[in-house]
Amino acid sequence: ATYENVLVEQRGRVGVVTLNRPKALNALNSALMKDLNEALRAFDKDDSVGAIVVTGSEKAFAAGADIKEMKDLEFVQCYKNNFLADWTGITSIRKPIIAAVNGFALGGGCEVAMMCDLIYAGDKAKFGQPEIKLGTIPGAGGTQRLTSLVGKAKAMDMILTGDMITAQEAEKAGLVARIYPAEKLVDEAVKSATVIASYSLPSVQMAKEAVNKSLELSLSEGLHLERRLFQATFATKDQKEGMKAFAEKRAANFTHE
Ligand code: HXC
Protein backbone atom coordinates (compact mmCIF):
# COMPACT_ATOMS: atom_id res chain seq x y z
CA ALA A 1 0.00 0.00 0.00
CA THR A 2 1.09 3.63 -0.40
CA TYR A 3 0.34 6.40 2.02
CA GLU A 4 0.44 10.17 1.77
CA ASN A 5 2.32 10.84 5.01
CA VAL A 6 4.50 7.81 5.59
CA LEU A 7 6.83 5.75 3.39
CA VAL A 8 6.89 2.00 3.82
CA GLU A 9 9.51 -0.48 2.68
CA GLN A 10 10.49 -3.98 3.63
CA ARG A 11 14.15 -4.88 4.13
CA GLY A 12 14.38 -8.64 4.54
CA ARG A 13 12.13 -9.50 7.50
CA VAL A 14 12.06 -5.89 8.72
CA GLY A 15 9.26 -3.46 7.95
CA VAL A 16 10.40 0.18 7.87
CA VAL A 17 7.94 3.03 8.29
CA THR A 18 9.31 6.53 7.65
CA LEU A 19 7.29 9.52 8.80
CA ASN A 20 7.23 11.80 5.80
CA ARG A 21 5.70 15.26 6.23
CA PRO A 22 8.94 17.20 5.74
CA LYS A 23 7.39 20.65 5.39
CA ALA A 24 6.10 20.47 8.97
CA LEU A 25 9.01 18.53 10.56
CA ASN A 26 6.74 15.47 10.61
CA ALA A 27 4.21 17.20 12.87
CA LEU A 28 1.69 14.51 13.70
CA ASN A 29 -1.66 15.52 12.25
CA SER A 30 -4.59 13.13 12.15
CA ALA A 31 -3.88 12.06 8.55
CA LEU A 32 -0.29 11.11 9.45
CA MET A 33 -1.37 9.21 12.58
CA LYS A 34 -3.95 7.32 10.53
CA ASP A 35 -1.30 6.39 7.95
CA LEU A 36 1.19 5.38 10.66
CA ASN A 37 -1.35 3.18 12.42
CA GLU A 38 -2.43 1.54 9.15
CA ALA A 39 1.15 0.92 8.01
CA LEU A 40 2.03 -0.63 11.38
CA ARG A 41 -1.07 -2.82 11.38
CA ALA A 42 -0.26 -4.04 7.86
CA PHE A 43 3.27 -5.07 8.91
CA ASP A 44 1.88 -6.63 12.10
CA LYS A 45 -0.37 -8.90 10.01
CA ASP A 46 2.30 -9.75 7.42
CA ASP A 47 3.92 -13.14 8.10
CA SER A 48 7.06 -12.15 6.18
CA VAL A 49 7.77 -9.37 8.72
CA GLY A 50 9.28 -10.10 12.14
CA ALA A 51 10.16 -6.63 13.44
CA ILE A 52 9.44 -3.01 12.59
CA VAL A 53 11.52 0.19 12.53
CA VAL A 54 9.80 3.58 12.73
CA THR A 55 11.87 6.58 11.77
CA GLY A 56 11.61 10.16 10.51
CA SER A 57 14.10 12.43 8.75
CA GLU A 58 17.58 13.52 9.86
CA LYS A 59 16.08 16.86 10.94
CA ALA A 60 13.07 15.52 12.80
CA PHE A 61 11.61 12.27 14.01
CA ALA A 62 8.50 14.34 14.75
CA ALA A 63 8.19 17.88 16.14
CA GLY A 64 5.01 17.00 18.01
CA ALA A 65 1.30 16.90 17.46
CA ASP A 66 0.26 19.34 14.73
CA ILE A 67 -0.21 22.59 16.61
CA LYS A 68 -1.93 24.33 13.70
CA GLU A 69 -4.46 21.50 13.41
CA MET A 70 -5.35 21.46 17.10
CA LYS A 71 -5.08 25.12 18.10
CA ASP A 72 -8.78 25.95 17.71
CA LEU A 73 -10.20 22.74 19.13
CA GLU A 74 -12.77 23.17 21.91
CA PHE A 75 -13.04 20.97 24.98
CA VAL A 76 -16.41 19.47 24.05
CA GLN A 77 -15.11 18.44 20.64
CA CYS A 78 -11.96 16.93 22.21
CA TYR A 79 -14.02 15.11 24.80
CA LYS A 80 -16.76 13.82 22.51
CA ASN A 81 -14.27 12.56 19.93
CA ASN A 82 -11.87 11.37 22.66
CA PHE A 83 -9.05 13.38 21.08
CA LEU A 84 -5.74 11.44 21.07
CA ALA A 85 -7.33 8.12 22.10
CA ASP A 86 -6.52 6.62 18.69
CA TRP A 87 -2.81 7.39 19.18
CA THR A 88 -2.52 4.34 21.43
CA GLY A 89 -2.96 2.10 18.35
CA ILE A 90 0.83 1.83 18.24
CA THR A 91 0.87 0.06 21.59
CA SER A 92 -1.43 -2.69 20.33
CA ILE A 93 1.07 -3.76 17.65
CA ARG A 94 2.39 -7.18 18.71
CA LYS A 95 5.65 -7.27 16.80
CA PRO A 96 8.60 -5.36 18.29
CA ILE A 97 9.03 -1.78 17.09
CA ILE A 98 12.33 0.12 17.21
CA ALA A 99 12.02 3.92 17.02
CA ALA A 100 15.09 5.26 15.19
CA VAL A 101 15.15 8.92 16.26
CA ASN A 102 17.17 11.56 14.45
CA GLY A 103 16.65 15.27 15.09
CA PHE A 104 13.67 16.49 17.08
CA ALA A 105 11.40 14.15 19.03
CA LEU A 106 9.19 16.67 20.77
CA GLY A 107 5.81 16.47 22.48
CA GLY A 108 3.75 13.88 20.65
CA GLY A 109 6.92 12.92 18.74
CA CYS A 110 8.67 11.91 21.95
CA GLU A 111 5.47 10.18 23.06
CA VAL A 112 5.25 8.16 19.83
CA ALA A 113 8.89 7.13 20.25
CA MET A 114 8.10 5.99 23.81
CA MET A 115 5.12 3.94 22.57
CA CYS A 116 7.63 1.92 20.55
CA ASP A 117 9.46 -0.90 22.35
CA LEU A 118 12.96 0.44 21.99
CA ILE A 119 14.51 3.79 21.08
CA TYR A 120 17.81 4.14 19.22
CA ALA A 121 18.94 7.73 18.71
CA GLY A 122 21.16 9.55 16.25
CA ASP A 123 23.93 11.50 17.98
CA LYS A 124 22.22 14.84 17.30
CA ALA A 125 18.73 13.82 18.42
CA LYS A 126 16.83 16.04 20.85
CA PHE A 127 14.00 14.87 23.08
CA GLY A 128 11.52 17.11 24.84
CA GLN A 129 8.01 17.59 26.15
CA PRO A 130 7.53 21.32 25.37
CA GLU A 131 3.72 21.34 25.69
CA ILE A 132 3.94 23.56 28.78
CA LYS A 133 5.23 26.36 26.55
CA LEU A 134 2.01 26.13 24.52
CA GLY A 135 -0.26 26.35 27.55
CA THR A 136 -1.00 22.64 27.69
CA ILE A 137 0.50 19.38 28.96
CA PRO A 138 1.60 16.09 27.37
CA GLY A 139 -1.47 14.11 26.26
CA ALA A 140 -0.24 10.87 24.74
CA GLY A 141 1.68 9.31 27.61
CA GLY A 142 4.40 11.88 28.30
CA THR A 143 3.67 12.29 31.97
CA GLN A 144 3.33 8.53 32.47
CA ARG A 145 5.76 6.74 30.14
CA LEU A 146 8.53 9.32 30.47
CA THR A 147 8.31 9.12 34.25
CA SER A 148 8.53 5.31 34.17
CA LEU A 149 11.50 5.45 31.84
CA VAL A 150 13.64 8.24 33.29
CA GLY A 151 12.25 8.64 36.81
CA LYS A 152 10.42 11.52 38.44
CA ALA A 153 13.31 14.00 38.66
CA LYS A 154 14.16 14.07 34.94
CA ALA A 155 10.55 13.74 33.81
CA MET A 156 9.33 16.55 36.03
CA ASP A 157 12.21 18.75 34.91
CA MET A 158 11.53 18.16 31.20
CA ILE A 159 7.76 18.50 31.49
CA LEU A 160 7.75 21.62 33.71
CA THR A 161 10.56 23.54 31.97
CA GLY A 162 9.90 22.33 28.43
CA ASP A 163 13.69 22.09 27.96
CA MET A 164 15.01 19.54 25.50
CA ILE A 165 17.61 16.90 26.36
CA THR A 166 20.32 15.60 24.04
CA ALA A 167 20.66 12.04 22.80
CA GLN A 168 23.55 11.57 25.22
CA GLU A 169 21.47 12.76 28.19
CA ALA A 170 18.57 10.59 27.01
CA GLU A 171 20.81 7.53 26.92
CA LYS A 172 22.19 8.25 30.37
CA ALA A 173 18.65 8.69 31.72
CA GLY A 174 17.45 5.39 30.27
CA LEU A 175 15.14 6.77 27.56
CA VAL A 176 17.41 5.64 24.74
CA ALA A 177 19.06 2.22 24.40
CA ARG A 178 21.80 3.08 21.90
CA ILE A 179 23.28 6.06 20.05
CA TYR A 180 24.69 5.96 16.53
CA PRO A 181 26.07 8.61 14.17
CA ALA A 182 23.00 10.22 12.60
CA GLU A 183 23.67 8.99 9.07
CA LYS A 184 24.15 5.37 10.23
CA LEU A 185 21.17 5.24 12.58
CA VAL A 186 18.51 3.75 10.32
CA ASP A 187 20.81 1.06 8.91
CA GLU A 188 21.91 0.13 12.43
CA ALA A 189 18.29 -0.02 13.63
CA VAL A 190 17.43 -2.26 10.67
CA LYS A 191 20.44 -4.46 11.54
CA SER A 192 19.19 -4.95 15.11
CA ALA A 193 15.64 -5.47 13.88
CA THR A 194 16.97 -8.10 11.47
CA VAL A 195 18.60 -9.96 14.37
CA ILE A 196 15.39 -9.76 16.40
CA ALA A 197 13.33 -10.89 13.40
CA SER A 198 15.57 -13.94 12.97
CA TYR A 199 14.51 -15.29 16.37
CA SER A 200 11.28 -17.15 17.07
CA LEU A 201 8.49 -14.65 16.52
CA PRO A 202 6.16 -16.07 19.20
CA SER A 203 8.98 -15.88 21.76
CA VAL A 204 9.93 -12.37 20.63
CA GLN A 205 6.30 -11.32 21.04
CA MET A 206 6.06 -12.91 24.47
CA ALA A 207 9.28 -11.22 25.56
CA LYS A 208 7.99 -7.83 24.34
CA GLU A 209 4.66 -8.38 26.07
CA ALA A 210 6.27 -9.36 29.37
CA VAL A 211 8.71 -6.44 29.43
CA ASN A 212 6.00 -3.91 28.54
CA LYS A 213 3.70 -5.34 31.21
CA SER A 214 6.41 -4.77 33.81
CA LEU A 215 5.52 -1.08 33.61
CA GLU A 216 1.92 -1.82 34.56
CA LEU A 217 1.85 -4.85 36.86
CA SER A 218 2.96 -5.46 40.42
CA LEU A 219 6.12 -7.56 40.80
CA SER A 220 4.19 -10.72 41.73
CA GLU A 221 1.72 -10.34 38.86
CA GLY A 222 4.55 -9.57 36.47
CA LEU A 223 6.55 -12.59 37.58
CA HIS A 224 3.44 -14.75 37.27
CA LEU A 225 2.86 -13.55 33.72
CA GLU A 226 6.53 -14.09 32.89
CA ARG A 227 6.56 -17.66 34.19
CA ARG A 228 3.35 -18.56 32.32
CA LEU A 229 4.70 -17.08 29.09
CA PHE A 230 8.06 -18.82 29.62
CA GLN A 231 6.22 -22.13 30.10
CA ALA A 232 4.15 -21.40 26.99
CA THR A 233 7.29 -21.16 24.84
CA PHE A 234 7.69 -24.92 25.46
CA ALA A 235 4.60 -25.41 23.28
CA THR A 236 6.41 -23.94 20.27
CA LYS A 237 8.41 -25.83 17.66
CA ASP A 238 10.97 -23.06 17.85
CA GLN A 239 11.84 -23.82 21.49
CA LYS A 240 12.45 -27.46 20.53
CA GLU A 241 14.53 -26.38 17.54
CA GLY A 242 16.47 -23.73 19.48
CA MET A 243 17.52 -26.06 22.28
CA LYS A 244 18.14 -29.03 19.95
CA ALA A 245 20.34 -26.85 17.74
CA PHE A 246 22.35 -25.77 20.79
CA ALA A 247 22.88 -29.39 21.84
CA GLU A 248 23.90 -30.31 18.29
CA LYS A 249 26.29 -27.33 18.07
CA ARG A 250 24.57 -25.81 15.01
CA ALA A 251 22.61 -22.67 14.22
CA ALA A 252 18.90 -22.81 14.98
CA ASN A 253 16.48 -22.66 12.10
CA PHE A 254 13.39 -20.96 13.52
CA THR A 255 10.11 -21.32 11.65
CA HIS A 256 8.15 -18.97 13.92
CA GLU A 257 5.81 -21.71 15.01
C1 HXC B 1 2.75 22.19 13.36
C2 HXC B 1 4.98 22.53 13.04
C3 HXC B 1 5.26 21.89 14.26
C4 HXC B 1 4.18 21.38 15.01
C5 HXC B 1 7.12 22.52 13.38
N1 HXC B 1 6.16 22.90 12.52
N2 HXC B 1 6.61 21.90 14.45
N3 HXC B 1 3.73 22.67 12.59
N4 HXC B 1 2.94 21.55 14.52
N5 HXC B 1 4.35 20.73 16.16
C6 HXC B 1 6.32 23.61 11.27
C7 HXC B 1 6.66 25.05 11.48
O1 HXC B 1 5.50 25.80 11.76
C8 HXC B 1 7.27 25.42 10.15
O2 HXC B 1 6.24 25.62 9.21
C9 HXC B 1 8.02 24.15 9.78
O3 HXC B 1 7.42 23.09 10.55
C10 HXC B 1 9.49 24.21 10.13
O4 HXC B 1 9.61 24.54 11.51
P1 HXC B 1 10.51 25.76 12.06
O5 HXC B 1 9.94 26.14 13.36
O6 HXC B 1 10.65 26.80 11.01
O7 HXC B 1 11.91 25.01 12.21
P2 HXC B 1 13.09 25.38 13.25
O8 HXC B 1 13.27 26.86 13.32
O9 HXC B 1 14.22 24.51 12.83
O10 HXC B 1 12.56 24.91 14.68
C11 HXC B 1 12.35 23.52 14.97
C12 HXC B 1 11.51 23.38 16.25
C13 HXC B 1 10.22 24.21 16.15
C14 HXC B 1 12.35 23.81 17.46
C15 HXC B 1 11.22 21.88 16.39
O11 HXC B 1 9.58 23.90 14.90
C16 HXC B 1 9.25 23.95 17.24
O12 HXC B 1 9.43 24.42 18.36
N6 HXC B 1 8.16 23.21 16.94
C17 HXC B 1 7.10 22.97 17.87
C18 HXC B 1 7.52 21.93 18.88
C19 HXC B 1 6.40 21.66 19.88
O13 HXC B 1 5.97 22.55 20.61
N7 HXC B 1 5.94 20.41 19.91
C20 HXC B 1 4.91 20.00 20.83
C21 HXC B 1 3.63 20.13 20.14
S1 HXC B 1 2.30 19.86 21.24
P3 HXC B 1 6.25 26.87 8.20
O14 HXC B 1 4.94 26.71 7.47
O15 HXC B 1 6.37 28.08 9.02
O16 HXC B 1 7.46 26.60 7.35
C22 HXC B 1 2.13 18.25 21.34
C23 HXC B 1 1.00 17.85 22.17
C24 HXC B 1 1.11 16.41 22.47
O17 HXC B 1 2.83 17.49 20.79
C25 HXC B 1 -0.15 15.97 22.99
C26 HXC B 1 -0.34 14.56 22.67
C27 HXC B 1 -0.13 14.22 21.29
Describe the 3D structure:
With 257 residues, this protein is α/β, with parallel strands linked by helices. It contains 10 helices and 10 strands. It has a 6-stranded mixed sheet, with helices on both faces. The radius of gyration is 19 Å and the shape is globular. It starts with 5 loop residues before the first strand and ends in a 10-residue tail after the last helix. The structure holds hexanoyl-coenzyme A (HXC). Residues 24-25, 27, 63-68, 84, 104, 106-108, 111, 130-131, 134, 138-140 line the site of hexanoyl-coenzyme A. It is an enzyme of class 4 (lyase). InterPro entries: ClpP/crotonase-like_dom_sf, Enoyl-CoA_hyd/isom_CS, Enoyl-CoA_hydra/iso, Enoyl-CoA_hydra_C. One of its GO terms (molecular function) is enoyl-CoA hydratase activity. Belongs to the enoyl-CoA hydratase/isomerase family.
Write the layout of secondary structure elements.
Blueprint: E1 6-11, E2 14-19, H1 30-45, E3 51-55, E4 60-62, H2 67-70, H3 75-80, E5 97-101, E6 104-106, H4 108-115, E7 118-122, E8 126-128, H5 142-161, E9 165-166, H6 167-173, E10 178-180, H7 185-198, H8 201-213, H9 219-233, H10 237-247
Parallel strand pairs: 2-3, 3-5, 4-6, 5-7, 6-8, 7-10
Antiparallel strand pairs: 1-2, 8-9
The chain binds hexanoyl-coenzyme A.
Enzyme class: lyase
Organism: Rhizoclosmatium globosum
InterPro entries: ClpP/crotonase-like_dom_sf (IPR029045), Enoyl-CoA_hyd/isom_CS (IPR018376), Enoyl-CoA_hydra/iso (IPR001753), Enoyl-CoA_hydra_C (IPR014748)
